[in-house]
Amino acid sequence: xxxxxxxxxxxxxxxxxxxxxxxxxxxxxxxxxxxxxxxxxxxxxxxxxxxxxxxxxxxxxxxx
Length: 64
Fold this sequence. Notes:
Elements: H1 25-29, H2 38-55
């Protein structure tokens, strides 16, 4: 799996999730050290996280 980073990093203070990709700082930093079974689990949770941020109006839009 390639990195889900889209180059728009900004973190939500309440959840700790990146508004661009949905990962936490710990998940971003530990990606290369993550066990093979951890990456797909994290990746599968990102759409839910981003949807939750979008519903609260906290996802950064391109150009912001």
